[in-house]
Each structure stands twice: as C-alpha cells, then as structure tokens.
Write a structure and sequence with these properties.
The complex is a heterodimer.
Chain A: H1 2-16, H2 18-26, H3 35-46, H4 51-61, H5 65-74, E1 86-91, H6 94-98, H7 101-112, E2 125-130, E3 142-144, E4 147-149, H8 154-162
Parallel strand pairs in A: 1-2
Antiparallel strand pairs in A: 1-3, 3-4
Helix pairs in contact in A: 2-4
Chain B: H1 16-29, E1 35-40, H2 43-47, H3 50-64, E2 70-75, E3 87-90, E4 94-96, H4 104-114, E5 123-124, E6 131-132, H5 139-142, H6 160-165, H7 170-178, H8 181-191, H9 203-212, E7 219-224, H10 233-240, H11 242-256, E8 260-265, H12 270-286, E9 301-306, H13 316-323, E10 347-351, H14 352-364, H15 366-370, E11 380-387, E12 393-398, H16 403-410, E13 420-425, E14 431-434, H17 444-449, E15 458-463, H18 468-482, H19 488-505, H20 513-527, H21 531-534
Parallel strand pairs in B: 1-2, 7-8, 7-10, 8-9, 11-15
Antiparallel strand pairs in B: 1-3, 3-4, 5-6, 11-12, 13-14, 13-15
The chains are: A alpha+beta, B alpha/beta.
C-alpha cells in the first residue's frame, strides 16, 4: 500500500518534470551506447529507476525495453524499487569482512528490520552492501548518503544513524 | 590557492619548447623560501575527517596574517590511510597523523611560525616506542620505493600546473616529438613492463598485436574498474595523480595509432571520477590532449565511462560489453581484444597502474626501469596491505620483496600480539598463503607457483582468529553473487559450493564433501567462460 502511494507521488514528480526528463533522454539520442550513464543520471534524479522513465527511454532512444530492463537489473548500482531518504551502504569487502562488517548487516536486520536491498516502511533508510569501497585500512566502513564513516561497530552505527531523520 | 599560475601562459602549447617554457615559468613562480603544508584529501583520509582539517587550515591561513608565507595544498592519497587525516609539512617533511581541526591553530603557531614540532601528533614506532618526526624515517615509508605513488602526496590533483611543475607531460613531449611508435614499443619491451591488472601479461606484446591489427579506428581503454574487494590502489592513483594515467594513455594511443580513448571507472569511486574529469578538461585546455597535441599533428580524445558496479566487468570482454551499453557478460575469447575489441575494432586495454608506469619508462629509460625488480617482473607494484595488521595502507615496493618484509617491516606485524595465520592475495581469484611461504619473493610468477596470484595487488593479512573455512565461504559467496549467470558451470557450480561450505560452517560437513568440492573446482576450471569462474 505504502509503495503504491510512493509510486503515485513519483508519477506526479515525473509529470511535473516531463520536460526536463525528456531533455535528458534526448541528450543521449546519438549516444545509445551510453545507456548505463543515462540510467545513472535518472537514478541520481529519483534515487531509483521509475518504470515510466524506463519505458520512455526505450521509446525515445528506440532501444528494446528488454535491453533497458536487462541493463537496469544486471548492475548493482540500479534499483527498480523506490528507496529511502538515506542510503546506508555497509562495506563487505575482504578487509571489512575480517574486521566484522557482517555484524553491522546483522545488526541492521535485528534492530531495524532491514535486509540488504530493503527500505524501512517509513522510507527513512535503505540498506545496501558494497563489495569494497576502497577504504580497507579503516574497516569496517559504512557510507551514509556519500559520507564515509570509519571503524564502525554496532554501537557506533546506532549513534551515527540518529543523525539521519 | 596562492595564485592561479595558468595565467602565466594562456595560449595552447604548440611545441615541446612551449611546454618547457611553461614549466620553467611555473617553477620560477614557486617561492623556494615558502613552507608547504600538504593535507591528504584521499577518500581514506576524508573518511576520517580530512575535509574539516582542510577547511580549518584554509580559514586559519586566510585570517591569521602569518609571518611566514605558506603554500597550502590538498593532495591525493599518501597511502598511510589508517593514520589519517595525515598532514605533511615541508621542506623538512614533518609527519603529523590523526590531525583534527582543533589541532590546526597549534600547528600554525608552533610548527609554521616558531619551527617547533608538536610532539603529540607524531607517529610512534610500535617496535621501539620512539616518536618519529620525519615522514622519510617512518618505517612504513622508508622501505618503500614510491615511483607511482610518490607524486600523490606532493601535488594537488585538481591543478595540472602542479603536475607540470613536477615534470609532468615531459614524457609525452619526448615520445610524440622525438620518438617513432616502434621506438616507444621497443622501450616498453626492454623495460619488461607487465600488465598490472592481475595476469601480468607482457605489455609490449599486447601493444604490438594492437599495432599490427588491421583497421583504421583503434581504441585505447583504461581499466579502472577495480572490483576486487580489498584493493584500492587504482582508485588512489586516479584520484591522486590522474594526469599520470592520462599521459600514459596518450603515449599508448600514439604508439598504436588510436584517436579515441575511454576510462572505465567504478561508480563507487566518485572522487576518482571527478578528478579524472577535471584532469581531462585541463589537459585539453593546454593542448596536451585533443587535436594536434603539442603541434605534432597527432590527435587523441578521452571519454570517461562510469561502470555499474559489477565485479565481472573487470574482465576484459565484459568490460567492453559494458562500454557498448550492454550488460557486462563476458564472451568466449576466440579472437584477442587487441584485434577485435570495442565495437569489434582493435582495442588496447590496460590497467590504471600499467598506464601510470608508461611516462616513467619513457622519461627515465628502459635500462633504468629494468634494473628494478626481479628477472621476470620489472618495476614496482602497489599493494594494499590491509586486514589484521598494524600499519595498513597502500604500499609500493619493488618486485622481489618478501611477504615477511612487507608484513613485518612495513606493516609492523599483527596487532594485539596475535599469531599470523595466512595472507590472502589476488582477490577472489587468488588464494591464501600460509606462514611457511612468507619468505617467498613476491612477483607474478612466484605467487602463481604458490597457487595464488598477484591480481590487482590486494594483500589481506589474517590472524589466528580468522576461520579459513569462513574465508573460503566468503569468497565463494562473493563470486556466486557476482557471477553473471551466463555459463552453467559458474552459475550452478558456485551455488553448489556455497551450499556445501554453508553446511560445513554450521558443523554438518560430510567426508565426501571434499571430493565433491574438488570435482566442482575442476569442472569450473575447464568449463567456465571467464576468469571469474575459472579461478
């Protein structure tokens, strides 16, 4: 039910920005091969890939919808589901793993009811995992909306998350 | 920014002489009496709060009216990430670690104005308990040979002028205006450079086949995908010294006759993308990139392409599929990339570190380069030394150093008096090396002999608390998640392996599990389409 509401809201945003989105898609008209970059731009705008926009991409650029969809689902960076206001990315690279990264993911499941890829019902947080963020010396690393937090333990994670309403 | 030196010479550079004039002007503008402060602004130090330190320095320097003229810069990664934020003060190269914004006024008042050292910010050697003042005396640094990383701590990656003042693009001028493509190829060949992406394929041989390949249009590609968990050296170089990579790519393009290049970089590395973008823009403005480079008649353009974050895209054929806007599935390699790569045209694909080595070799010559390293592996390798180790960070050492020297001399050993168990090299495709092989000299061939591999240079140290079955399960889990699913051995084999390892971890292993696992391994080895499944 909540998700339906969200989709309606996004539809309204898309309608409101129809010109801007059309311009973005058209700017890739002669660069069909940069589909991945286009999808990254769309995702930067909406925080996920709305179905309506994918259909428009397919129609405007004359790329089969199946191909747009396969690219959108193949790469980890893309989400077809609406996401929360804040994205929490827990690094599970080897170095973070040996220093206890998994405990943070377990904590999110236990205390926040979030499995990787899921969003809280109030749309506050989305949990994601990364295979390595390249801060291996500082593990376990958690990134929240682009801000890196180093040497995070379950207690510290609680304190950090309080800042994100 | 003290002064915008680009105004010294506004026009495009049209010859090697123009480049030299600019370099001299830049050096002359640099006041030798000036004290310089370099704060590390790499992603690692930023994670520990470097941005606030940079801001504090800028504000204090602006308002303070210091008696000494200060040259302040935010540089790329210094490598000693664990000690961040790191501040180095020249000319003496005083090394301060874990610097906080509150420390900034004290550093300016004590060190800069009065020439005194702030004791509490110094590094303490865990072995002797002594405080160390200079960066060059810190054991972590003084056993390294920082050919590729050295400039990282010296220059602001957002200012092409600083790279130029440090001798940047001299190799480009030399190659383009005084050398023929076969001469450059010969130089790379005699240097013995091998691909730093993992396999260690001789670079000159790759360049040669791309040179010989038929076709008017050829591409040059830089692989900055770096999906290996536990490695971040490519990011550090692209972030800290993007021009060295670009310079290498232009020289490569001139050698094989290409006019279009791509940098394929992970979306997870926003700072690297930003710095590479700025670098390309600035190089274009100076005429070091683009049409008619340095008046030589040679033209070359570079486009940045952000990856979607799939491990398999580091594999060459998958990377190329992804560059073409398709999903990153590998394909069987009946023909070589060098002959039929991107858009079925000859393509020269090399790793970030490989490209960054090229200007060094051209500048200082193949003979100098070939003296560093072992018989089969020349030059240096950048490792990320991480895991259960005292001094973790990026380490650049000549090939031939032993794992023991790296872990104990540079890395400072295992924390908490724990026992060493194993070291994992080569990422998910590599293996774990136990204690009895610690004295093996590290190079491409020796690691392969041990059943592991160099990979992109991740070295993950594990102590007695680390469970090896858990590590195996972790990597299989990783590969299972990253398998593109195209070929059956990889898709099904890895799922099965993960199932068995899960059961063993839960204490319900069966004796026949080992045989089944060995069988699956053998099948993957012969049946999988790409290296993700095979290794």
């Amino acid at each position: 039910m909540d998700e339906d509401l969200n989709v309606t809201a996004v539809r309204n945003i898309i309608e409101g920005n129809a010109g801007k989105i059309a311009a973005l898609i058209s700017s890739y008209a002669d660069k069909k091969e940069e589909l991945i970059s286009l999808l990254q731009d769309v995702q930067a705008e909406f925080n996920y890939l709305p179905q309506d926009v994918l259909i428009r991409i397919s129609q405007t650029l004359e790329i089969p919808l199946s191909q747009v969809f396969s690219v959108a689902t193949f790469f980890h960076a893309f989400s077809l589901k609406p996401r929360g206001r804040h994205t929490v990315t827990v690094c599970l690279g080897t170095a973070c793993h040996v220093k206890g990264g998994q405990r943070l993911v377990d904590k999110m499941a236990r205390d926040y009811g979030l499995e990787p890829g899921e969003t809280t019902p109030d749309e506050r947080l989305t949990l994601e995992t990364a295979n390595c963020l390249g801060c291996c010396a500082l593990g376990p690393v958690v990134v929240i909306d682009g801000t890196y937090e180093s040497q995070v333990n379950p207690d510290k994670l609680d304190k950090i998350l309080k800042k994100y309403k | 920014m003290p002064e915008k030196q680009s105004t010294l010479l506004k026009k495009k550079l049209n010859s090697a002489a123009d480049l030299e004039t600019l370099r001299r002007a830049l050096l002359a503008a640099k006041d030798k009496s000036r004290v310089n402060i370099a704060v590390c602004g790499g992603t690692g130090c930023r994670a520990s709060g470097a941005e606030a330190v940079v801001k504090a320095f800028r504000e204090e320097i602006a308002k303070n009216g210091l008696k000494v003229k200060v040259d302040f810069k935010e540089t790329g990664c210094h490598g000693f990430c664990e000690r961040g934020p790191v501040v180095v003060i020249g000319p003496e190269r005083i090394f301060y670690q874990h610097v906080k914004p509150e420390d900034v006024p004290e550093i300016l008042a004590e060190t800069i104005a009065a020439g005194k050292v702030v004791e509490r910010l110094l590094y303490t050697d865990p072995a002797t308990g002594k405080k160390i003042t200079r960066e060059t005396d810190v054991p972590f640094y003084n056993k390294q040979t920082r050919l590729l990383l050295g400039a990282n701590g010296e220059i602001d990656p957002r200012e092409i002028d600083q790279y130029l003042a440090a001798g940047g693009y001299a190799a480009l001028g030399k190659a383009l205006l005084t050398m023929t493509p076969p001469q450059i190829l010969d130089e790379i060949k005699r240097a013995g450079l091998r691909g730093r992406g993992g396999g260690g394929f001789p670079t000159a041989r790759k360049w040669q086949s791309c040179m010989d390949a038929e076709g008017d249009i050829k591409y040059v590609i830089c692989n900055a995908d770096e999906g290996d968990p536990g490695s971040y050296q490519d990011r550090s170089i692209l972030e800290g010294n993007p021009h060295s990579v670009i310079e290498g790519m232009i020289i490569g393009a001139y050698t094989i006759g290409s006019s279009q290049g791509y940098i394929y970089v992970r979306n997870e590395y926003p700072l690297a993308v930003e710095h590479a973008r700025q670098a390309i823009k600035q190089a274009l403005e100076y005429g070091l990139l683009g049409d008619d480079i340095l008046g030589s008649g040679f033209s070359f353009h570079i486009t940045i392409n952000k990856g979607g974050g799939a491990f398999v895209c580091g594999e060459s054929s998958a990377l190329i599929a992804s560059l073409e806007g398709k999903i990153g599935e590998p394909r069987a390699k009946y023909t070589h990339m060098a002959e039929k790569g991107l858009w079925d045209r000859p393509s020269l694909l090399n790793n970030v570190k490989t490209w960054a080595n090229v200007p060094l070799i051209i500048n200082r010559g193949a003979d100098w380069y070939a003296k560093i390293g072992t018989a089969g592996s020349k030059g240096t390798m950048v490792f990320s030394l991480v895991g259960k180790i005292n001094n973790s960070g990026l380490v650049e050492v000549p090939f031939g150093i032993t794992l023991r020297e790296m872990i104990y001399d540079i890395g400072g050993g295992i924390p908490g008096g724990k026992k060493f168990k194993a070291v994992q090299t080569g990422g998910p495709s590599g293996g774990c090396i136990p204690e009895q092989y610690l004295d093996t000299p590290v190079d491409f061939d020796e690691l392969t002999k041990l059943g592991s591999m160099m990979g992109s240079g991740g070295i993950i140290v594990m102590d007695e608390d680390t469970c090896m079955v858990d590590v195996a399960r972790y990597f299989i889990e990783f590969l299972k998640g990253e398998s593109c699913g195209k070929c059956v051995p990889c898709r099904e084999g890895l799922s099965k392996l993960s199932e068995i390892l899960d059961r063993i971890v839960r204490g319900r292993g069966k004796p026949e599990d080992l045989d089944v696992m060995t069988d699956i391994g053998a099948i993957l080895d012969i049946g999988a389409l790409c290296a993700l499944g095979r290794s």
